[in-house]
Amino acid sequence: MGKLTLTEFDQLLRGALHNLNRKKDVVNKLNVFPVPDGDTGTNMYLTLKTAVEEVDKKMPQNLKDFGKALCEGALIGGRGNSGVILSQILKGFFESLDALETVDTVRFATALMAASKVAYHAVIKPVEGTILTVVKAVATKAVVISTYEKDFIKFFKDLLDESRISLAKTIDLLPVLKEAGVVDAGGQGFVFLIEGGLNVLKGEKIVEGVQKSFEEEIEQMDKTYSISGKLEYRYDTVILLSGVNIDTGKVNEDLTEFGDSIVVAKAQELTKVHIHSNNPHKVLEYLVQIGNIKDAKIEDMQAEVDEFLKEKQVHNVSVESSLPFSIISIAQGEGFKKIFLNLGVETVIDGGQTMNPSINDILTAITLCKKDFVVVMPNNSNIILAAQEAKKLAKTKTVEIIPTSNVVQAIPAILSFNTEGTFEENMSNALKMLETSHSVSITYSIKKTQLNGLKIKKGDVIGMLDEDIVSKGKNPAEVITNMIKDKNGIFKDAEFIGIYFGKETKAEDTEAVAKAFKEHFPEVEIDIIDGGQPYYYYLISIE
Amino acid sequence: MGKIIISQNSISKLAALAVMECYGVVGLVPARLGDRFLSLLGKENLSRGVDVKIDGKNVTINLYVILQGGIKVSEVANTIISQVSYKMKKLTGIENIDVNVVVRGIRREEYLG
């Protein structure tokens, strides 16, 4: 293959998106720079996804419009640092192609060079050892090999090799990466994009991408619907149409007459239509004129919602809190969710390590709270910022954030609340509680690293006191025993130690851990509770 | 045991260096001048684009920045906040740091290809 046209570029981008989707967790795990919040892969993926969706919406007929749609989507959908950088790379690339209809390897290389320049242009002091470094290396290599290599498959193979070489060097360029023993996350994301492109050039087919985004979008819409009680539109209608010349834009517009939550997505000759309507028969009548109906599904959402609300009401009676304010807590694990609901927390948002809820999730929960005053417990240092943003956006409620960085910190804070006290008094008590309590997290290392003088191997069990890794070992009991020795002062003054065991924790481990505590601190009250959390063997609160 | 004192000036300098590495930031402008006198700062006095307030244990850092055009402003600003506060906490050990971003201007997009 010597030349790329609109069709190939479209497939190339979808292949890149598809590959990144499959491997985004690998990228997330590498994320230690600039802020170690484990979201680089997700951010890059969502940015590129919005970009490709914009292409689906605009259905461009030439390469210039394709690039425009893609860049616009990436601009709007840009998420996080890596997403913003990716949007600049796309912009530089496609602006350089301008009105070309076919692209050979030489033009492709020039466009990559332009992408690298534009990406570098948007920062005063570019840090080397990042996605920028990898992009520059690939672009430089492309310019050299494009002079003799005209076949795109071989060209892409060389670029992929170069990207991997450059990625491997990032660890030596950036000290933070060296200390953590990883390569750059954004750079790895870029390597996966090239790899995905190459897969498509080699003939791999992808259809799943479009389908998946369609499902995700609908799920989002249905979720917002299920909260509100009385439905404006009753029937959830999904129809699969076949036909080549279907104008999705026009179908979308025409359907607004029948209902809302409309999604129309097209993949080759199949078009999928989703709508919430009170007259599904009219929707069918209309669509029959557009194409051949291959499949149709109509569901009564009112019945589902009634069922859902009934369940929820039963739930609420038992947990109605007598506090003058609502509490929102963010947690992972069935055990913790139950504990919080029993403590009178109104809403538990699912989230925690590697799965941060969005600002919007928190804002929705705040808006739906029954009381005018709302307390939010983020329970993870990465979520505090999102909670603060949600607080700013919540116009109808008075919101306070108790900056808990661990889920076990939230429990003593909630227990400190007093129904007689004012909102302010309760908040200041909870903050005081936070200062005097400590938390210990026992988990395992996902990579080799060196921190605070500890050499940690992949798979080692590690113990964190508050936010710092302070001890390691082969099993949880060993880690705890080490920690008790090193940080005796913290445990000595405790009155209560709560041990929350996780989803994958072994019962005999728990016995050993409890025994270690009892031996060292016979005076302290110890409680063992099922937290059901993922990733952490134990979360321990020291009060 | 001794005491560690970090001057306001040092905090400004550290913050200025941190913000320069933030993607999307193409310049800092003086905090105290009106828009009419907007001018990009040279490397020596970058910290004039940073305004630091210290109140007991709390530090507030206001950053006056120029961003690259054609980039999602809200996303860049959020990244600046998390990146600068993370770096400042790590370097100085001060726990209570609030970072505010004031976008004072957008640099025109230009064709570089």
Describe the structure.
Chain A is α/β, with parallel strands linked by helices. Chain A has four domains: 6-206, DhaL domain (Serine Threonine Protein Phosphatase 5, Tetratricopeptide repeat, Alpha Horseshoe); 209-302, Alpha-Beta Plaits, CATH 3.30.70; 320-435, Phosphotransferase system, mannose-type IIA component (Rossmann fold); 438-542, Hypothetical Protein Tm841, Chain: A,domain 3 (2-Layer Sandwich), CATH 3.30.1180. In chain A, 55% of the residues lie in helices and 18% in strands. Chain A has helices at 6-30, 40-58, 63-77, 80-97, 105-121, 131-146, 152-173, 175-180, 185-201, 208-227, 248-255, 280-290, 301-319, 334-342, 359-368, 381-393, 407-415, 423-436, 476-486, 488-492, 507-520, and strands at 235-242, 259-267, 270-277, 292-300, 326-331, 347-350, 373-377, 398-401, 438-444, 449-451, 454-456, 461-465, 468-473, 496-501, 525-530, 536-542. In chain A, helix 5 (105-121) packs antiparallel against helix 6 and helix 15 crosses helix 16 (381-393). Chain A starts with 5 loop residues before the first helix and ends with a strand. Residues 220-229 and 312-319 of chain A have low confidence and may be disordered. Chain B has 113 residues and is of the alpha+beta class. Chain B has one domain (8-107): Cation efflux protein, cytoplasmic domain (Alpha-Beta Plaits), CATH 3.30.70.1350. Chain B has helices at 8-20, 73-92, and strands at residues 25-28, 50-55, 58-68, 97-107. In chain B, strands 1, 2, 3 and 4 form a four-stranded mixed beta sheet that branches. In chain B, strand 2 (50-55) and strand 3 (58-68) form a beta hairpin. The longest helix of chain B is centred in the last third of the chain and has 20 residues, at 73-92. Chain B is elongated, with a radius of gyration of 15 Å. The chains are: A alpha/beta (543), B alpha+beta (113). The A-B interface holds A 34-35, 37, 75-76, 78-81, 83-85, 87-88, 91-92, 95-96, 110-111, 113-114, 117-118, 121-127, 385, 389 and B 17, 20-27, 68, 70-72, 75-76, 78-79, 81-83, 86-87, 111-113.
